[in-house]
Amino acid sequence: MIAVASDHGGLDLKNAIVVSLQEQQIECVDLGTDGTASVDYPDFAEKVAKMVASGTAKAGILICGTGIGMSISANKIPGIRAALVHDEFTARMAAEHNAANILVLGGRVLSADQGVRLVDVWLTSRYEGGRHQQRLDKIAALE
Ligand code: RB5
User: Fold this and answer.
1) 0.70 exceeded by the pTM?
2) DSSP 49-63
3) pLDDT number for residue 12
């Protein structure tokens, strides 16, 4: 199951991603936000990151206006590797090299079509392991 959330700046892209996941019959949970009222992105990053870190969700997707606040917040939770991506190359690398367990997008940076496409690229790319594992181990040691 994939946990998805946004603030008001990522609302439209979040809704488009949830629809896309549902159309593909990929199990997901929408943790908000549900309206255009201004909210604080760390509250939503915390919900998704804790679900992923605990194993309740296998992965997460977070969207704010730029993606910056969500990525800073989510990466405070031990075990989280949240990657802010902007194009297909970085979306693929986030999976293949970084084993990112949360994908972060900027709702004011990407169109809905672009954002949905980056989710698909990330979900269909696989972690390569090998030389990358020692780097992930070093990241874990930093915690
Ligand atoms: C909210 O206005 C905005 O600051 C937020 O969506 C995000 O871009 C923060 O990094």
Assistant:
1) yes
2) HHHHHHTSSSEEEEE
3) 98
CATH number, domain with residue 123: 3.40.1400.10
Q: How far apart are CA 42 and CA 142, in angstroms?
A: 21
22-80 pLDDT, tens per residue? Answer: 999 999 999 999 999 999 999 999 999 999 999 999 999 999 999 999 999 999 999 99
CA 6 to chain centre: 10
Residue range of the domain that includes 112: 2-142
Q: Is the CB of 7 under 6 A from ligand 1?
A: yes
Ligand 1 atom closest to 70 (CA): 10
Structurally, the chain folds into a number of domains equal to: 1
Residue with tokens 């990525």: 71
The residue type found at 133 is: Q
